[in-house]
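Summary of Year 1 activities. Much of the first year was spent building the evaluation harness for sequence design. The harness presents a backbone, in tokenized form, and records the residue chosen at every position. We chose the following record to illustrate the format because it has been used consistently in internal testing since the harness was completed.
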């Protein structure tokens, strides 16, 4: 017969555990119990023959532990307990407050792991989540289910464990990872909702919702099932979603003995803004099936998206026994492939081109394209769509099952080939707007009224008001905005029979000006028409940014420049003045995109990489920009042509298809930390998303400044 014991202090709990023989339930009264340390030092035998459960006497008022150190226990269950971590000054972001090491038969059911943010560090970490939520080391037969994890650097770290079940949990407000696993064998990750990460700019974190890794291990991870989870950006920051790099094998430090083995990834809904939706390294026996790997920008305004922002399925390395089938995704790529791989019945879908195949507005129910009231994204396939025909996507997407992680999934079809819902009653009309970006024009949008439902006989009119004082008519229209900013777009649908209905949707457009060096001593970005400062520059003087010397003079995060990679109309301009006659070296570098420098002859040299895979080099002739005078410099990308201008004269030009390539990972830097840097002043730096055709050289302000020097400068 099981025994129930009620306690109200930490000492009473430890005494009860010391007297337990298996089968007992120890109920904890509400209150704070401090640090629970159950190690050899307690002198208690925690190897129970059957479960001993530590539970809340009142689940509505759970007991609270500030720390947990559990070693070599067997058959111990925690239920309805709160584990509350409070950051202490000086603690590392990797500090683990709740640790289980060794033992077997451990379970956490309906618990809450509540983290904290760092403060007082004087670094990027302040105000962002810190610490590990639950750290499992060398545990067998561990179950974590129905629990909540919030505000940690990493929600759960699982190291060298066997037979792990992580089911039905919710994780949010993580700084780096939700689940982090290595050297694990026998893992089920099922029905979890991982969402709304808040990453720390400048931290160098590698954010992942579910991450496996092999670096520094000697034990392969095997028998892994990742099933029916919702990995959702929500209103948070982008992350990689399922990331299983086999870094040990990638670097040639191990062979097939360290391949992942027997991996099944199925039924997951992934909505994020990073290309690695599902990324798997070298594996023996891999099935990826019936997943929905989709795109949303999270807390950022929707706009033109570079390929690096759109989730897809990617295999890295020579895996064996691979099957990829019935997924809905933007693409399936691999670094290498082998005969025998099975890749079938996958639906390629996209949200960038309303006129292209697989557009979201055509394959998903319109109402399901918007997040639920809880912020989750529950895309639902239209009956008869590409997804329906191929039976591709997660069961939730196809309407075959209800979301196990909550959300009513309302507003969509039942999918899966079932009968469609009945049409709206005669005489009804519901206007609906879908929006897509236009390739190579960050300020243009395609507006589509095709998702409108109800009676729309011949002669129905579709009137658009774009929020900038302009209008248009037609079911599908394209509009380019002159300036960046938020705009409320209204569609009015009117039938010849007198029915009328309107819908309004807000869109945010990037302005022409992407970035500029302000006279106040900082770079300014304008993501939506409003200036945002990036912080004061230590090497900025009244003469401009001081290039040369040790290290780079300044940098701009690559994430601030993403619109640059989505257009073939770009103008980059600046004023240069050499501090020393004959100086050479780098001026600006965006790795994998362009490098601007001064060569040994004093000529400007531009080396650029295009999105179509070609490389171009442009060199000025006879300018000798290192003689000491100020010079106006422009780089103009104009729809297939790349030109270098100096002092209002086109010095060199070449064909250049596409946009600047987004093939690097480093930030835009000025000067150089590794190569020789040009020694001089850089002023008036700007990058605009236009072709510069309206400029003979520079704008009026720069031209006036330049003109004042010509009469008195003997080197000009």
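For this record, the design step produced the sequence shown next.
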């Amino acid at each position: 017969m099981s025994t129930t014991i009620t306690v109200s202090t930490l000492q009473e709990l430890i005494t009860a555990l010391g007297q337990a023989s298996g089968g007992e339930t120890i109920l904890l009264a509400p209150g704070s119990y401090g640090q629970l340390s159950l190690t050899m030092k307690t002198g208690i035998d925690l190897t129970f023959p059957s479960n001993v459960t530590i539970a809340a006497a009142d689940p509505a008022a759970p007991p609270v532990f500030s720390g947990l150190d559990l070693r070599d226990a067997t058959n111990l269950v925690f239920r309805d307990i709160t584990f509350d971590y409070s950051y202490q000054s000086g603690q590392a972001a990797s500090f683990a407050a709740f640790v289980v090491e060794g033992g077997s038969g451990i379970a956490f059911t309906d618990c809450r792991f509540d983290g904290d943010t760092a403060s007082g560090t004087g670094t990027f970490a302040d105000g962002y989540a810190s610490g590990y939520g639950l750290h499992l080391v060398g545990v067998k037969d561990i179950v974590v289910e129905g629990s909540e994890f919030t505000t940690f650097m990493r929600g759960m770290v699982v190291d060298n464990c066997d037979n792990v079940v992580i089911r039905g949990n919710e994780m949010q407000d993580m700084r780096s990872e939700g689940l982090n696993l290595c050297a694990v064998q026998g893992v089920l990750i099922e029905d979890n909702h991982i969402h709304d990460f808040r990453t720390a700019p400048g931290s160098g974190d590698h954010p992942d919702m579910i991450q496996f890794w092999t670096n520094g291990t000697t034990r392969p991870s095997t028998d892994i099932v990742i099933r029916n989870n919702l990995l959702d950006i929500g209103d948070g920051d982008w992350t990689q979603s399922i990331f299983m790099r086999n870094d040990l094998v990638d670097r040639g430090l191990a062979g097939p003995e360290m391949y992942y083995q027997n991996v099944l990834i199925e039924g997951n809904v992934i909505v994020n803004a990073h290309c690695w939706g599902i990324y798997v390294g070298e594996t023996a026996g891999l099935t990826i099936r019936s997943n929905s790997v989709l795109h949303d920008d999270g807390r950022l305004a929707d706009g033109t998206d570079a390929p690096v922002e759109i989730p897809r399925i990617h295999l890295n390395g020579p895996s064996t026994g691979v099957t990829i089938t019935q997924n809905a995704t933007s693409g399936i790529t691999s670094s290498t492939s082998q005969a025998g791989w099975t890749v079938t019945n996958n639906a390629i879908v996209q949200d960038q081109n309303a006129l292209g195949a697989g557009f979201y507005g055509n394959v998903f129910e319109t109402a399901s394209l918007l997040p639920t009231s809880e912020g989750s994204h529950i895309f639902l396939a239209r009956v008869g769509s590409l997804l329906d025909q191929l039976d591709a996507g997660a069961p939730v997407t196809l309407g075959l099952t209800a979301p196990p992680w909550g959300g009513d999934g309302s507003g969509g079809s039942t999918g899966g080939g079932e009968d469609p819902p009945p049409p709206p009653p005669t005489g009804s009309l519901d206007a609906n707007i879908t929006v897509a970006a236009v390739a190579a024009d960050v300020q243009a949008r395609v507006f589509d009224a095709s998702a409108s439902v109800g009676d729309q006989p011949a002669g129905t009119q579709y009137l658009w008001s774009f929020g900038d004082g302009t209008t248009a008519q037609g079911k599908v229209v394209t509009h380019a905005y002159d300036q960046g900013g938020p705009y409320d777009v209204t569609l009015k649908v009117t039938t010849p029979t007198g029915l009328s209905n309107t819908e309004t949707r807000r869109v945010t457009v990037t302005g022409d000006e992407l970035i500029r060096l302000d006279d106040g001593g900082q770079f300014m970005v304008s993501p939506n028409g409003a200036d945002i400062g990036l912080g004061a520059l230590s090497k900025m003087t009244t003469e401009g940014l001081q290039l040369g010397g040790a290290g780079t003079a300044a940098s701009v995060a690559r994430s601030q420049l993403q619109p640059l990679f989505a257009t073939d109309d770009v103008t980059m301009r600046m004023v240069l003045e050499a501090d020393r006659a004959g100086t050479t070296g780098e001026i600006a570098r965006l790795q994998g995109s362009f490098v601007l420098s001064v060569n040994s002859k004093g000529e400007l040299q531009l080396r650029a990489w295009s999105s179509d895979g070609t490389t171009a080099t442009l060199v000025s002739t006879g300018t000798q920009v290192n003689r000491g005078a100020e010079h106006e410099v422009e780089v103009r990308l104009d729809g297939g042509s790349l030109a270098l201008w100096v002092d209002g004269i086109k010095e060199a030009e070449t064909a250049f298809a596409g946009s600047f390539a987004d093939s690097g990972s480093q930030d835009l830097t000025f000067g150089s930390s590794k190569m020789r840097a040009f020694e001089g002043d850089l002023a008036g730096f700007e990058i605009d998303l236009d072709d510069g055709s309206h400029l003979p050289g520079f704008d009026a302000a720069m031209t006036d400044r330049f003109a004042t020097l010509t009469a008195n400068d003997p080197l000009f």
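Residues 408-426, 694-716 have pLDDT under 50 and may be disordered. Quantitative recovery figures across the full test set are reported in Table 2.
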